[in-house]
Design goal:
Bound molecules: guanosine-5'-diphosphate, magnesium ion
Largest sheet: 7 strands, mixed
Helix content: 25-40%
Strand content: 25-35%
Shape: elongated
Radius of gyration: 32 Å
Number of strands: 34
Number of helices: 18
Length: 683
C-alpha cells in the first residue's frame, strides 16, 4: 500500500520524454498495462502499442508526434503524453510541456545519449518542469548505476538523486531497494514487484546509498542537515516531504530504475508520481494563472482525424468544459467545442464534461491552434505559455503530383501546419515553388507522407531553387531598334541605352537623358518596362541585379511607333547589350551560426571548408557549458543539407541559424555547372 493511504489528489498530466529509442513508448504501454487501461501490453517491435499508432509512426517505427493516453491509478486520473525523442520532432514536446505537472525523462545507461539528454533536460529546466529520471533497460545494463549517474550529472543542472539501487540475483539485476521506503523488492515480469527482506550485502549498500540521498536532500534543508550531522534518523515522512518539495522546486531530479518491456519499476514510478508531483492547481500557479471562474485550457497539440475532424488536445486548468463551450483565445475567437473526447493514442471516445486537471481532446475548435490559452468567457486569459518553434534548418519544394490538386494542396498545407507548427511554408513566386521549411529530413518526409495519406494530396518534392542572380562587370552602349514596316500598320521603336554595372546591393535603376524629344515622353515608361522585363533573365539565365540602364538616344515614327514597339526596342537593347558586358553569376551568401558541443568544434571546421565556408570566428556558447558557437559565411547552395552533416558530427544535437548576408560573384567550374544546369532546365 502507498505510504500516505489512498487519498485522491486529482488528475495529473505527465510527459514522457527522453532521447530517441530510450523506451518512452514502451514505458507508456507498460504503464497502461500495469494500471489496467489495456488488457495486453503491446510492443514497439510488433507495432501494436497505444502510442505511435499513426500510420507514419508505425511505418518508420518511431514516434513522430505526441501520443496521449489516459489511465486510472489508485483513484486518480493520469494522462501521459509520450513525446518523440528525435530532435526533429522536439517541438511536439516543447509545445506539450506547459500542460504537464511533471516529466519522466526516460534514459538508457548509454553514454552516447548524453548530448540528447542534455538538450531535453535543458528544455525542462527552462520551462521549470519538475522531472524524474527513469533509467530504463537496466536489464541490459553493463555499467554500475553509480558510474552512470556520474556520467549523466553534467547534463543536468539539478542534482540527480538516486532513489533506488538495484539488487542482484547472481550477475543480473533482479530487483531494487527503494531508498526512501527502505524496502527491498524483487522484480516479477508483468506483475507487481515482491517485497523481500532487506539484508546482508544489499543492506550495507542501501545504507551508504541512502545516506548519500539524504545528504543531497539536506543541501536544501538545514534541519535535515543537522539531523544527519548528529546521526539522528530522520522520520520517513520528512524524507518523503523533502523529496516532494525539492522535486517541485526543481532542486533535485530523482532517479528511478526499471525495465519497461517487463513493466519492472513501473508501479513504483506511478507511486512516486502520485505522491510527489504537483497537482493541477500548483501547475496553474507555475504558469501564472489568475483565479477566476471561467474555464481555462491550454492546447498542447492539434490533430486532424479522419472521422472526428479537427481535435485540440487540451489540459483543463480551471473550471469545466462541456460539449458546446465557446472559447476565446487572446485576441481571437477560438470556436465552440463539438464533443469532449477521451484519448487513447489514436483512438478517441466521446465522454462527458471535463474538469480542472483533466486532459482531453476538444472537437472542432476551428480557430484554436497549438499553444493557445483558451478561456470560456468574454475576457481572454493572457497566454499561459509561449513556445515559439526553433527556426527551421532544412527545406524542400513540394508540388501536387496532379495539377487538379493545386487548390487542395493549399488546404492540406494549412492543416499540416496546424498539426506541426514547427514547419513553415514559403511561396517562392520567382521560382513558382512552394517551399516547406522544417527541422530535418525525417520531419519533412513525414510531412509529405501526411499530405498524401492523411490529407489526400499526392505530392512530388525536390530541392528548392537557390536564389542565384547575375550581374555585369563592364558597361556598354547599345542600340535596340524594333522595326516592322512591311504591309498594313507598321511598328517602329528605336532606343540607345547605356548599360553599366553599379555597386553590389544597389539593385536596378532606370534613367533617361533624352534631348529634343527624339523619344517622345509618353514612350519612355514603355522602354523602362521592356528593360525590366528583359532583365528577368540575363544572358546566364538568371535575374539581373546591380545594373543601371540609361536611355540616351533613339528615334520614332509618327504613325508606326507604339508602346509595344518601344517596349520591344528596350528589350532588344538589353538582350544584345548584356552579353558584351562580361556577365557574371552571383550567389547568395549567408551568415550561419552553428551551435555544437565543444568536442565537435574541430569537426565543424573541416565540414565548413568542404562546403566553401569561411570561418568568421569561434566562441563559447553563452549559458551552455561545454558548447561552442562557430560563425561562418557560406553559400546558400551549401546550406541545403548542412543540418544532416552537423547532426551526424554531433550525435544529433548540433543546430544552426542563418541569415542572408550578401551576394558574391561566383566563377569557374561551379559557376559553369550552375549555368549549364539552368540552360538545360530552361530548354
Ligand atoms: N531490453 C529492453 N529493451 C527495451 C526496454 N524498453 C524499451 N526497449 C526497447 O527499446 C526500443 C525502443 O523503444 P521505444 O519505446 O520505441 O523507445 P522511444 O523511442 O523512447 O519511444 C524498442 O525496441 C523496445 O522494445 C527495456 O526496458 N529493456
Ligand atoms: Mg517513442
Amino acid at each position: 500500500m502507498a505510504q500516505n493511504g489512498t487519498r485522491a489528489t486529482g488528475p495529473r498530466c505527465i510527459a514522457l520524454v527522453g532521447p530517441f529509442q530510450s523506451g518512452k513508448t514502451t514505458l507508456l504501454e507498460a504503464i497502461l498495462a500495469r494500471t489496467g487501461a489495456i488488457q495486453r501490453q503491446g510492443t514497439v517491435d510488433a507495432g501494436n502499442t497505444v502510442g505511435d499508432a499513426s500510420k507514419e509512426s508505425r511505418h518508420h517505427k518511431m514516434s513522430v508526434e505526441v501520443s496521449v493516453a489516459s489511465t486510472h491509478f489508485m483513484g486518480d486520473d493520469y494522462t501521459f503524453v509520450d513525446c518523440p525523442g528525435s530532435i526533429e520532432f522536439v517541438h511536439e514536446m516543447r509545445a506539450a510541456l506547459p500542460a504537464v505537472d511533471a516529466a519522466v525523462v526516460v534514459c538508457e545507461l548509454d553514454e552516447k545519449k548524453i548530448p540528447q539528454l542534455h538538450l531535453i533536460l535543458r528544455e525542462l529546466e527552462d520551462q521549470k518542469i519538475p522531472r524524474f529520471l527513469f533509467l530504463n533497460k537496466i536489464d541490459k545494463a553493463d555499467a554500475t548505476i553509480h558510474d552512470v549517474l556520474t556520467l549523466l550529472q553534467p547534463a543536468s543542472r539539478s542534482k540527480l538523486l538516486l532513489r533506488q539501487i538495484p539488487s542482484f540475483s547472481g550477475d543480473v539485476i533482479g530487483g531494487f531497494v527503494d531508498l526512501a521506503l527502505e524496502r527491498a523488492f524483487v522484480y516479477r515480469e508483468h506483475a507487481a514487484s515482491e517485497v523481500v527482506p532487506l539484508e546482508g550485502d544489499t543492506l550495507e549498500r542501501e545504507k551508504t546509498a541512502r545516506f548519500s540521498m539524504l545528504e543531497t536532500l539536506a543541501d536544501h534543508d538545514d534541519q535535515l542537515m543537522e539531523q544527519l550531522l548528529e546521526d539522528i534518523q530522520p522520520p520517513r515522512d520528512k524524507v518523503f516531504d523533502d523529496l516532494s518539495r525539492e522535486l517541485r522546486e526543481g532542486l533535485v531530479c530523482p532517479v528511478l530504475l526499471g525495465v519497461a518491456t517487463r513493466t519492472n519499476g513501473v508501479l513504483r514510478l506511478m507511486k512516486a508520481l502520485r505522491h510527489e508531483t504537483p497537482a493541477v492547481a500548483e501547475t496553474a500557479q507555475r504558469l501564472g494563472m489568475k483565479a477566476g471562474n471561467d474555464a481555462i485550457a491550454y492546447v498542447m497539440k492539434t490533430l486532424h482525424t479522419a472521422h472526428g475532424g479537427k481535435m485540440s488536445i487540451a489540459r483543463i486548468f480551471n473550471g469545466q468544459v462541456n460539449d458546446g463551450t465557446t472559447f476565446v483565445a487572446p485576441e481571437r475567437e477560438a470556436g465552440r467545442v463539438a464533443g469532449v473526447f477521451k484519448l487513447m493514442g489514436q483512438s478517441t471516445e466521446k465522454r462527458g464534461a471535463a474538469h480542472a486537471g483533466e486532459t482531453v481532446a476538444l472537437g472542432k475548435l476551428d480557430h484554436a491552434t497549438t499553444g493557445d490559452t483558451l478561456t470560456a468567457g468574454k475576457q481572454a486569459h493572457p497566454a499561459l505559455a509561449a513556445v515559439p518553434p526553433y527556426p527551421p534548418v532544412l527545406a524542400i519544394a513540394v508540388a501536387a503530383k496532379e495539377r487538379k490538386d493545386d487548390v487542395k494542396l493549399g488546404q492540406a498545407l494549412t492543416r499540416l501546419l496546424e498539426e506541426d507548427p514547427s514547419i513553415t511554408v514559403v511561396h517562392n513566386a520567382e521560382a513558382h515553388e512552394v517551399v516547406l521549411w522544417g527541422q530535418g529530413e525525417m520531419q519533412l518526409r513525414v510531412a509529405t507522407e501526411r499530405l498524401t495519406d492523411r490529407f489526400g494530396v499526392p505530392t512530388v518534392s525536390h530541392k528548392p531553387t537557390v536564389g542565384y542572380r547575375e550581374t555585369i562587370k563592364k558597361p556598354v552602349v547599345q542600340r535596340g531598334r524594333h522595326k516592322k514596316q512591311s504591309g498594313g500598320h507598321g511598328q517602329y521603336g528605336d532606343v540607345v541605352l547605356e548599360i553599366k554595372p553599379v555597386p553590389r546591393g544597389s539593385g536596378f535603376s532606370f534613367t533617361e537623358e533624352i534631348k529634343g524629344g527624339v523619344v517622345p515622353r509618353n514612350y519612355i515608361p514603355s522602354v523602362e518596362h521592356g528593360v525590366i522585363d528583359a532583365l528577368k533573365h540575363g544572358p546566364l539565365g538568371f535575374p539581373v541585379v546591380d545594373v543601371a540602364a540609361k536611355l540616351i538616344d533613339g528615334s520614332y515614327h509618327t504613325v508606326d511607333s507604339s508602346d509595344m514597339a518601344f517596349q520591344l526596342a528596350g528589350r532588344l537593347a538589353i538582350h544584345d547589350g548584356m552579353p558584351q558586358c562580361q556577365p557574371v553569376l552571383l550567389e547568395p551568401i549567408y551568415e550561419v551560426e552553428i551551435a555544437c558541443p565543444s568536442e565537435a568544434t574541430a569537426k565543424m571546421n573541416a565540414l565548413m571548408s568542404g562546403r566553401r565556408g569561411q570561418i568568421l570566428g569561434f566562441d563559447t556558447r553563452e549559458g551552455w557549458e561545454g558548447w561552442d558557437v562557430v560563425r561562418v559565411q557560406m553559400p546558400e547552395s551549401e546550406i541545403g543539407d548542412l543540418i544532416v552533416e552537423v547532426r551526424s558530427a554531433t550525435a544529433g544535437v548540433g543546430s544552426f541559424t542563418f541569415k542572408f548576408d550578401h551576394m558574391a560573384e561566383l566563377t569557374g567550374r561551379t559557376a559553369d555547372q550552375i549555368v549549364a544546369a539552368r540552360k538545360s532546365a530552361a530548354a
